[in-house]
Automatic annotation (TrEMBL):
The keyword DNA-binding applies. PROSITE patterns: RECOMBINASE_DNA_BIND (PS51737). Residues 145-221 form the Recombinase domain. This is Recombinase domain-containing protein. Signal peptide: none annotated. SUPFAM superfamilies: Resolvase-like. The lineage of its organism: Bacteria, Bacillati, Actinomycetota, Actinomycetes, Micromonosporales. Keywords: DNA recombination, DNA-binding.
Length: 221
């Protein structure tokens, strides 16, 4: 499933052996963590492998860490073996040998690297979002947590988005629910359990958590 520069790597691998790329399959915009059966183009390749009318002998992967996440190789490669279709990757210098422990180890290594890379990206994104929230007071999206409301924080720093009328948002204490939020925190810090806190809130009738599109209401007396 190559895509430039993966396509270039794939061709460099198979062309010296007389191979030719007859189709390019690449799932764009989908997480590598998704299993192959939940990726449209990967599913298409599996269906083609199983077809008696297939017009290819092997599948070449430009970058295995983008194709196989975690343990996906171990769950997918047996399909190739069963239907007699080769799987070529540059990291082993050609076709993967089903009987080679070394090849299994290499592919397992790249599956682990793929998982680690995705986790690092996720951590970096979350860290950047947290820093923007703490240092700039920006709220980057999603439903405001209970006790807060969205407030305007000025024009968007990206000129293109600002031209579209998009603005920044920050979290401000909600005058109706913030006291309840503070009460929950103080009671929990004082050692009260969640059930005790919930019973007290129910008994006193605090503002309810608003549903989307429905204003905050108090329960009937």
């Amino acid at each position: 499933m190559p895509q430039d520069p993966q396509l270039s790597r794939a061709r460099s691998l198979i062309e010296p052996a007389g191979g030719e790329v007859v189709a390019e399959l690449f799932d764009i915009g989908l997480s590598r963590a998704l299993p192959w059966k939940r990726r449209p183009e990967a599913t298409r390749s599996l269906d083609a492998i199983k077809s008696a009318e297939r017009d290819f002998d092997a599948v070449v992967i430009g970058e295995p860490q983008r194709a196989f996440y975690g343990s996906q190789f171990g769950m997918t490669f047996p399909v190739f073996v069963h239907y007699g279709v080769g799987l070529w990757v540059p990291e082993v210098g050609g076709a993967i040998d089903p009987g080679s422990d070394a090849h299994d180890l290499v592919m397992a290594l790249y599956g682990g690297m793929s998982k680690g890379e995705r986790n690092r990206i996720k951590i970096r994104v979350h860290s950047a979002m947290k820093a923007q929230t703490e240092l700039e007071g920006r709220y980057l999206g999603g439903r405001p947590p209970y006790g807060y409301r969205l407030a305007d924080a000025g024009p968007h720093p990206n000129p293109g988005k600002a031209a579209e009328g998009k603005r920044l948002h920050r979290l401000d204490p909600d005058p109706v629910t913030a006291p309840v939020d503070r009460r929950i925190f103080e009671e929990y810090a004082a050692g009260r359990g969640m059930i005790t806190i919930a019973r007290g809130l129910t008994q006193d009738g605090p503002p309810l958590l608003p549903l989307q599109g429905i204003p905050r209401i108090r329960p009937p007396a």
